[in-house]
Design goal:
47% strand; 296 residues; 4-stranded parallel beta sheet; mainly beta; single chain; 1% helix; 29-stranded parallel beta sheet; 1 helix
Protein backbone atom coordinates (compact mmCIF):
# COMPACT_ATOMS: atom_id res chain seq x y z
CA UNK A 1 0.00 0.00 0.00
CA UNK A 2 1.37 3.42 -1.04
CA UNK A 3 -0.48 6.55 0.05
CA UNK A 4 -0.88 9.73 -1.98
CA UNK A 5 2.18 11.43 -0.47
CA UNK A 6 4.59 8.83 -1.92
CA UNK A 7 5.59 7.17 -5.19
CA UNK A 8 6.69 3.58 -5.76
CA UNK A 9 9.40 2.42 -8.19
CA UNK A 10 9.91 -1.28 -8.90
CA UNK A 11 13.06 -2.30 -10.78
CA UNK A 12 13.48 -6.00 -11.55
CA UNK A 13 11.24 -6.98 -8.64
CA UNK A 14 8.85 -9.91 -8.33
CA UNK A 15 5.43 -9.42 -6.71
CA UNK A 16 2.98 -12.32 -6.96
CA UNK A 17 -0.06 -13.98 -5.48
CA UNK A 18 -1.56 -11.14 -3.46
CA UNK A 19 -5.24 -10.60 -2.75
CA UNK A 20 -7.31 -7.58 -1.67
CA UNK A 21 -10.51 -5.66 -2.28
CA UNK A 22 -8.71 -3.37 -4.75
CA UNK A 23 -5.19 -3.87 -6.08
CA UNK A 24 -4.49 -7.50 -5.22
CA UNK A 25 -0.71 -7.11 -5.44
CA UNK A 26 -0.23 -3.31 -5.34
CA UNK A 27 -2.45 -0.43 -4.26
CA UNK A 28 -0.70 2.87 -5.01
CA UNK A 29 -2.27 6.32 -4.64
CA UNK A 30 0.94 7.88 -5.95
CA UNK A 31 2.84 7.24 -9.18
CA UNK A 32 3.83 3.62 -9.77
CA UNK A 33 6.90 3.06 -11.98
CA UNK A 34 7.73 -0.43 -13.26
CA UNK A 35 11.06 -0.98 -15.00
CA UNK A 36 11.53 -4.72 -15.08
CA UNK A 37 10.57 -7.78 -13.11
CA UNK A 38 7.19 -9.46 -12.78
CA UNK A 39 3.86 -8.69 -11.13
CA UNK A 40 1.55 -11.67 -11.44
CA UNK A 41 -1.48 -13.64 -10.33
CA UNK A 42 -3.05 -11.13 -7.98
CA UNK A 43 -6.77 -11.17 -7.21
CA UNK A 44 -9.21 -8.42 -6.24
CA UNK A 45 -12.83 -8.65 -5.16
CA UNK A 46 -13.38 -5.33 -6.94
CA UNK A 47 -10.89 -3.47 -9.17
CA UNK A 48 -7.34 -4.26 -10.25
CA UNK A 49 -6.38 -7.89 -9.65
CA UNK A 50 -2.70 -7.01 -9.87
CA UNK A 51 -2.55 -3.20 -9.60
CA UNK A 52 -4.73 -0.28 -8.56
CA UNK A 53 -2.97 3.06 -9.07
CA UNK A 54 -3.57 6.74 -9.73
CA UNK A 55 -0.75 6.77 -12.28
CA UNK A 56 1.44 4.18 -14.01
CA UNK A 57 4.75 4.57 -15.84
CA UNK A 58 5.82 1.19 -17.22
CA UNK A 59 9.03 0.90 -19.25
CA UNK A 60 9.77 -2.84 -18.98
CA UNK A 61 8.78 -6.00 -17.16
CA UNK A 62 5.70 -8.22 -17.16
CA UNK A 63 2.29 -7.87 -15.55
CA UNK A 64 0.30 -11.06 -16.00
CA UNK A 65 -2.62 -13.16 -14.92
CA UNK A 66 -4.51 -10.80 -12.61
CA UNK A 67 -8.18 -11.42 -11.86
CA UNK A 68 -10.56 -8.65 -10.79
CA UNK A 69 -14.24 -9.16 -10.01
CA UNK A 70 -15.25 -5.83 -11.56
CA UNK A 71 -13.31 -3.32 -13.69
CA UNK A 72 -9.68 -3.88 -14.62
CA UNK A 73 -8.93 -7.56 -14.24
CA UNK A 74 -5.20 -6.91 -14.03
CA UNK A 75 -4.73 -3.11 -13.80
CA UNK A 76 -7.07 -0.31 -12.73
CA UNK A 77 -5.87 3.22 -13.63
CA UNK A 78 -7.50 6.30 -12.11
CA UNK A 79 -4.97 8.83 -13.44
CA UNK A 80 -2.84 9.64 -16.49
CA UNK A 81 -0.52 6.76 -17.38
CA UNK A 82 2.08 5.72 -19.95
CA UNK A 83 3.27 2.31 -21.08
CA UNK A 84 6.46 2.45 -23.16
CA UNK A 85 7.65 -1.14 -22.89
CA UNK A 86 7.12 -4.54 -21.35
CA UNK A 87 4.25 -7.01 -21.52
CA UNK A 88 0.79 -6.94 -19.95
CA UNK A 89 -1.06 -10.19 -20.55
CA UNK A 90 -3.85 -12.57 -19.63
CA UNK A 91 -5.82 -10.42 -17.22
CA UNK A 92 -9.45 -11.38 -16.59
CA UNK A 93 -12.42 -9.37 -15.30
CA UNK A 94 -15.11 -11.71 -14.02
CA UNK A 95 -18.36 -10.07 -12.83
CA UNK A 96 -21.53 -9.34 -14.83
CA UNK A 97 -20.31 -5.74 -15.20
CA UNK A 98 -16.78 -6.82 -15.97
CA UNK A 99 -14.90 -4.55 -18.33
CA UNK A 100 -11.23 -4.35 -19.22
CA UNK A 101 -9.59 -7.73 -18.78
CA UNK A 102 -6.08 -6.28 -18.72
CA UNK A 103 -6.67 -2.55 -18.11
CA UNK A 104 -9.49 -0.25 -17.06
CA UNK A 105 -8.91 3.49 -17.54
CA UNK A 106 -11.14 5.40 -15.12
CA UNK A 107 -11.93 9.05 -14.47
CA UNK A 108 -10.85 11.84 -16.80
CA UNK A 109 -7.65 9.98 -17.56
CA UNK A 110 -5.36 9.44 -20.53
CA UNK A 111 -3.57 6.18 -21.32
CA UNK A 112 -0.67 6.45 -23.77
CA UNK A 113 0.92 3.25 -25.06
CA UNK A 114 4.15 4.16 -26.86
CA UNK A 115 5.61 0.66 -26.83
CA UNK A 116 5.31 -2.81 -25.42
CA UNK A 117 2.52 -5.36 -25.88
CA UNK A 118 -0.89 -5.84 -24.27
CA UNK A 119 -2.24 -9.28 -25.00
CA UNK A 120 -4.79 -11.93 -24.17
CA UNK A 121 -7.13 -10.04 -21.86
CA UNK A 122 -10.73 -11.16 -21.31
CA UNK A 123 -13.55 -8.94 -20.10
CA UNK A 124 -17.27 -8.37 -20.55
CA UNK A 125 -16.55 -5.28 -22.71
CA UNK A 126 -13.01 -4.39 -23.76
CA UNK A 127 -11.09 -7.64 -23.51
CA UNK A 128 -7.75 -5.85 -23.22
CA UNK A 129 -8.61 -2.18 -22.48
CA UNK A 130 -11.77 -0.43 -21.28
CA UNK A 131 -12.29 3.36 -21.02
CA UNK A 132 -15.88 4.55 -20.65
CA UNK A 133 -15.72 8.03 -19.10
CA UNK A 134 -16.88 10.77 -21.48
CA UNK A 135 -15.34 14.22 -21.01
CA UNK A 136 -17.46 17.21 -20.06
CA UNK A 137 -16.88 20.96 -20.41
CA UNK A 138 -14.94 21.15 -17.16
CA UNK A 139 -12.63 18.22 -17.85
CA UNK A 140 -10.25 17.09 -20.55
CA UNK A 141 -11.17 14.36 -22.98
CA UNK A 142 -10.56 10.80 -22.00
CA UNK A 143 -8.15 9.39 -24.57
CA UNK A 144 -6.43 6.11 -25.33
CA UNK A 145 -3.39 6.50 -27.58
CA UNK A 146 -1.91 3.28 -28.97
CA UNK A 147 1.54 3.28 -30.55
CA UNK A 148 2.47 -0.20 -29.35
CA UNK A 149 0.70 -3.54 -29.85
CA UNK A 150 -2.68 -4.59 -28.49
CA UNK A 151 -3.66 -8.11 -29.50
CA UNK A 152 -5.68 -11.27 -28.85
CA UNK A 153 -8.25 -9.72 -26.52
CA UNK A 154 -11.71 -11.22 -26.14
CA UNK A 155 -15.00 -9.73 -24.94
CA UNK A 156 -16.83 -12.66 -23.41
CA UNK A 157 -20.17 -13.34 -21.73
CA UNK A 158 -20.25 -14.20 -18.06
CA UNK A 159 -20.66 -17.94 -17.53
CA UNK A 160 -24.31 -18.76 -17.01
CA UNK A 161 -25.55 -15.24 -17.88
CA UNK A 162 -28.08 -15.37 -20.73
CA UNK A 163 -29.55 -11.88 -20.24
CA UNK A 164 -27.00 -9.96 -22.30
CA UNK A 165 -24.42 -11.63 -24.45
CA UNK A 166 -23.79 -8.66 -26.76
CA UNK A 167 -20.25 -8.08 -25.61
CA UNK A 168 -18.28 -5.35 -27.33
CA UNK A 169 -14.64 -4.75 -28.23
CA UNK A 170 -12.32 -7.70 -28.08
CA UNK A 171 -9.32 -5.42 -27.71
CA UNK A 172 -10.32 -1.80 -26.89
CA UNK A 173 -13.58 -0.21 -25.73
CA UNK A 174 -13.27 3.59 -25.71
CA UNK A 175 -16.12 6.05 -25.17
CA UNK A 176 -14.04 9.07 -26.13
CA UNK A 177 -11.05 9.82 -28.35
CA UNK A 178 -9.04 6.82 -29.56
CA UNK A 179 -5.83 7.07 -31.60
CA UNK A 180 -4.12 4.08 -33.23
CA UNK A 181 -0.67 4.45 -34.78
CA UNK A 182 0.59 1.03 -33.69
CA UNK A 183 -1.20 -2.28 -34.23
CA UNK A 184 -4.47 -3.65 -32.85
CA UNK A 185 -5.06 -7.22 -33.99
CA UNK A 186 -6.96 -10.48 -33.64
CA UNK A 187 -9.66 -9.51 -31.15
CA UNK A 188 -13.00 -11.28 -30.74
CA UNK A 189 -16.40 -9.95 -29.62
CA UNK A 190 -20.10 -9.90 -30.43
CA UNK A 191 -19.76 -6.32 -31.80
CA UNK A 192 -16.44 -4.70 -32.67
CA UNK A 193 -13.99 -7.58 -32.87
CA UNK A 194 -11.04 -5.26 -32.26
CA UNK A 195 -12.47 -1.83 -31.40
CA UNK A 196 -15.62 -0.14 -30.17
CA UNK A 197 -15.84 3.66 -29.96
CA UNK A 198 -18.61 6.18 -29.31
CA UNK A 199 -16.72 9.37 -30.15
CA UNK A 200 -13.75 9.70 -32.49
CA UNK A 201 -11.07 7.35 -33.76
CA UNK A 202 -7.92 8.33 -35.69
CA UNK A 203 -6.00 5.50 -37.34
CA UNK A 204 -2.57 5.73 -38.95
CA UNK A 205 -1.45 2.21 -37.98
CA UNK A 206 -2.93 -1.25 -38.49
CA UNK A 207 -6.22 -2.74 -37.29
CA UNK A 208 -6.56 -6.31 -38.53
CA UNK A 209 -7.86 -9.81 -37.99
CA UNK A 210 -10.81 -8.93 -35.78
CA UNK A 211 -13.84 -11.22 -35.57
CA UNK A 212 -17.34 -10.14 -34.54
CA UNK A 213 -20.38 -12.38 -34.31
CA UNK A 214 -22.63 -9.53 -35.40
CA UNK A 215 -21.31 -6.07 -36.39
CA UNK A 216 -17.92 -4.61 -37.24
CA UNK A 217 -15.29 -7.33 -37.53
CA UNK A 218 -12.51 -4.85 -36.84
CA UNK A 219 -14.35 -1.66 -35.80
CA UNK A 220 -17.82 -0.90 -34.53
CA UNK A 221 -18.30 2.87 -34.39
CA UNK A 222 -21.46 4.06 -32.67
CA UNK A 223 -22.30 7.70 -33.49
CA UNK A 224 -18.64 8.49 -34.03
CA UNK A 225 -16.17 9.44 -36.76
CA UNK A 226 -13.62 6.94 -38.06
CA UNK A 227 -10.73 8.70 -39.80
CA UNK A 228 -8.02 6.75 -41.64
CA UNK A 229 -4.82 8.69 -42.28
CA UNK A 230 -1.86 7.95 -44.56
CA UNK A 231 -0.43 4.51 -43.82
CA UNK A 232 -3.57 3.20 -42.14
CA UNK A 233 -4.59 -0.37 -42.89
CA UNK A 234 -7.89 -1.87 -41.74
CA UNK A 235 -7.97 -5.39 -43.06
CA UNK A 236 -9.03 -9.02 -42.80
CA UNK A 237 -11.94 -8.56 -40.42
CA UNK A 238 -14.94 -10.90 -40.24
CA UNK A 239 -18.54 -10.21 -39.16
CA UNK A 240 -22.16 -10.65 -40.20
CA UNK A 241 -22.38 -6.94 -41.08
CA UNK A 242 -19.35 -4.80 -41.85
CA UNK A 243 -16.45 -7.21 -42.14
CA UNK A 244 -13.93 -4.46 -41.42
CA UNK A 245 -16.03 -1.47 -40.28
CA UNK A 246 -19.61 -0.83 -39.28
CA UNK A 247 -20.20 2.85 -38.62
CA UNK A 248 -23.17 4.93 -37.50
CA UNK A 249 -21.02 8.04 -37.96
CA UNK A 250 -18.70 9.36 -40.64
CA UNK A 251 -15.94 7.28 -42.23
CA UNK A 252 -13.10 9.26 -43.86
CA UNK A 253 -10.45 7.40 -45.87
CA UNK A 254 -7.53 9.71 -46.65
CA UNK A 255 -4.74 9.33 -49.21
CA UNK A 256 -2.58 6.22 -48.81
CA UNK A 257 -5.03 4.60 -46.39
CA UNK A 258 -6.51 1.19 -47.18
CA UNK A 259 -9.49 -0.98 -46.23
CA UNK A 260 -9.29 -4.51 -47.60
CA UNK A 261 -9.82 -8.22 -47.10
CA UNK A 262 -13.04 -8.07 -45.09
CA UNK A 263 -15.62 -10.87 -44.99
CA UNK A 264 -19.32 -10.39 -44.16
CA UNK A 265 -22.79 -11.34 -45.32
CA UNK A 266 -23.48 -7.63 -45.85
CA UNK A 267 -20.77 -5.01 -46.44
CA UNK A 268 -17.68 -7.19 -46.51
CA UNK A 269 -15.39 -4.18 -46.07
CA UNK A 270 -17.66 -1.36 -44.83
CA UNK A 271 -21.27 -1.14 -43.66
CA UNK A 272 -22.44 2.49 -43.58
CA UNK A 273 -25.49 3.10 -41.41
CA UNK A 274 -28.22 5.38 -42.77
CA UNK A 275 -27.12 8.08 -40.28
CA UNK A 276 -23.54 7.98 -41.59
CA UNK A 277 -21.46 9.15 -44.55
CA UNK A 278 -18.47 7.64 -46.35
CA UNK A 279 -15.83 10.02 -47.69
CA UNK A 280 -13.08 8.52 -49.87
CA UNK A 281 -10.54 11.33 -49.69
CA UNK A 282 -7.74 9.73 -51.71
CA UNK A 283 -7.58 6.35 -49.98
CA UNK A 284 -8.78 2.98 -51.23
CA UNK A 285 -11.42 0.40 -50.36
CA UNK A 286 -10.77 -2.86 -52.16
CA UNK A 287 -13.53 -3.68 -54.68
CA UNK A 288 -15.50 -0.72 -53.39
CA UNK A 289 -18.52 -1.24 -55.63
CA UNK A 290 -19.26 -4.65 -54.16
CA UNK A 291 -17.79 -4.47 -50.64
CA UNK A 292 -19.45 -1.28 -49.32
CA UNK A 293 -23.07 -1.39 -48.17
CA UNK A 294 -25.18 1.73 -47.59
CA UNK A 295 -28.12 1.05 -45.26
CA UNK A 296 -31.39 2.71 -46.29
Amino acid sequence: YVDASANLTLTNCTVTGGGATDGGNIYALGLLTISGGEIADGTATQEGGNIYTTGLNMTDGTVSGGVGASYGGSIYLSGDSEISGGLIKDGVSTSTSRSGGNICVSGKSTLTITGGTISGGRGYNGGNIYSNKVADAANKAVTVNVKGIVTLGEAVAVEGDTSNNKNMAGNIFCANTLSISGAVTDGKAFDGGNLYTRNWIDISGTVSGGQATSRGGNIFASASTVQLHAGAKVQNGKADKGGNILSAGNVIVKANAEISGGEAAVGSNVYVNKTATLNIAGGTIADQDTTVYYAQ
